[in-house]
Amino acid sequence: MTFYLIRRVAIGIFLLFLMSAMFFTLTRVTPGAPISVGENPRIHQATITLRLHRLGLVDEQGNSYSIPQQYVLYLGALVHGDLGDSYVNNERVTTLLMQRLPNSILLLGAALLVALAIGIPLGIFAATRQYSKLDMTTSVVSYVGVSIPSFVLGLYLLLIFGVLLKQSPLHWGFPLFGMHTGGVDDPIDLLYHMVLPVTSLAILQIAIFSRFMRASMLEVLHQDYIRTARAKGLSIEKVNYKHALRNAILPIITLVAIAIPQIVNGAIITEGIFSWPGTGQLAFQAVVDRDYPVILGVVMLVAAGTVLFNLIADVAYAIADPRIRY
Amino acid sequence: MAQVPPIPIGPTAGGLPGATPDQLSIETTIQQERQLAKPGAKADELGGAPELGFWRLAVMRFLHHRTATGALIILGTIVLAALVYPIVTGNLYAIQDYRHPYKPPFASLQHLFGTDDLGRDELARLLRGARVSIEVGVLAVVGYLIIGGTLGALAGFYGGWLDNALMRFTDIIISAPFLLVVIAITAATGGVRLSTVIIVIAATGWYEIGRLMRAQFLVLREQEFVQAARALGASNSRIIVRHILPNALAPIIVSATLGVSGIILLEAALGFLGYSIPPPEPSWGNMLQEFEQYLLDDKAYLVIFPATALVITALCINLIGDGIRDALDPRQR
Fold first, then answer.
1. Where are the alpha helices (DSSP H) in chain A?
2. Cβ contact A295–B174 (<8 Å)
3. Which of A64, A99, A216, B119 to pair with B61, CA 20 to 30 A apart?
4. Do A268 and B311 touch (CB under 8 A)?
5. ipTM computed for the complex
6. Residues B136 and B313: beta-carbon distance below 8 Å
7. Rg (CA), chain B
8. Helix (H), strand (E), coil (C) string for A280-297
9. Which residues have CB under 8 Å from A238's CB, separation 6+?
10. Is the Cβ pair A265, B178 closer than 8 Å?
11. What is the model's pLDDT at position A175?
12. Residues in chain B closer than 8 A to A22 (CB atoms)
């Protein structure tokens, strides 16, 4: 187990390294010098050199580094937890990320929890009542859920709950836009603002989780030991929820790790639609501004998170399922 | 001496199912074979139950799947309309009519789906947008199949460094925020032409089919029929193309079908962010982007139409993909 852990961490670090090399090269071979963005054209040459030097693009004399040299510098800083400076904001990328990250974690974490809390029971009920009306409804809903991208769902939700409901005699609806001034200090207001973005992010995952849970549960229910348990005279509830569920729910652990990059994908647009001040919005603005260090920072952050969660998922799986030996 | 039953020859050997073979059957089957060689001769005319091929059975099973067939009809209508409507109406989608902007839908036959901010016909623009979606979806999936299919087959068959490289590439793509990467590459390649979008999507999204292909080849290359082919002296390339590939195809077809809907949604997301085909050329994504602001007015139909078209198309393709899965592998139901 210890050896396995060490190996997994090493592979993870190697992956991140490969990825940083890939995306670093990609961002450096593309057109668009950082100094040209929102900069005074009459700026002094020495100032430009100084700034480019601080960004790790040229040396003190203004001779530009080659891409491998730039990459080595970037890696050197990365080891110290420094992702470089933003081209546009005159801020450290780490500072920008840290400002936005809590908001994103709040939104994405809530979406994931909601998806788990609804998707898993839905899948279980559908499996234990196979071909019932509930089962059919669940599968229809999950089909639709998979076919609606989160941004289209976001627009629909805005229209229904933000506009139509307010125009209706109720004069009531959910707020259209992101965090209110209250922020974290006003939890009720915050929750109120989170309803629509969380829903639009969670539906896809609910669809995926419930489908997966149903399949997993059905597979377990057809196994011999379940028949044995039934033959012993145990009640259906006890067999379903005690014997079958324990084994069926295990693969979900892996699925959660896979879900994280998917939710982040959705968040890039959803945060934009609902003006949620999170990392996704930051990333999108960075793409618009061609602010490559920030793009690279977000990509690396998400990748590191995914690698970490995959590792945690595998370890958790090994702990939860004693049949698995590394 | 016991009577030796005649050796059945030919595709319809044995005649009717359940019919006892008689002395004449050698002659009749040879007769049948000669008739079959004649152009235009149908197996049905020979009186025997025709033996249906795998694909024909699959098509029949698919057509018995009511939801999938319905989805196919709806999708077919959309595709047909997208192909035919622009031919009939020409460049109607681009004609501006400043006297009649924001005409509400279903009010007149002239503009059935209403008009947009510049008085352009919404229906024509929707169908023009459908062409973009279909084009990107189909071409990018062809890209998936070419890149992912080839690399996956080679990795599964030969193993070694190619296999390792494929798996690591997959790991990288899976752990990166895919949408952001696609946007960054599209933005970086300097333009938002449709060809760029297709190439970027194909170049980054093929891994799923690659992995599936690899898994299929890993299983199939150990099977007896491959050993038999090798024992008969078949070369590696012949084994890959003629023996393993046809057996590996079923899950690949399903995955490719589902891939089309994924690509269409991805392209729409890119268009919504302004990183696909730029206006005035309409695509569902950039129509959503352009008219997002009208959501708060009473002109929400400008958003609802492209959004709904997108969802219906993706849903139909997913349903068809599921129908194909059931048709190709009835055990999985």
1. 2-29, 45-54, 67-79, 93-128, 133-147, 150-157, 165-167, 187-221, 224-231, 236-238, 245-248, 250-273, 279-289, 292-320
2. no
3. A216
4. no
5. 0.81
6. no
7. 26
8. HHHHHHHHHHCCHHHHHH
9. A229
10. yes
11. 67
12. 172
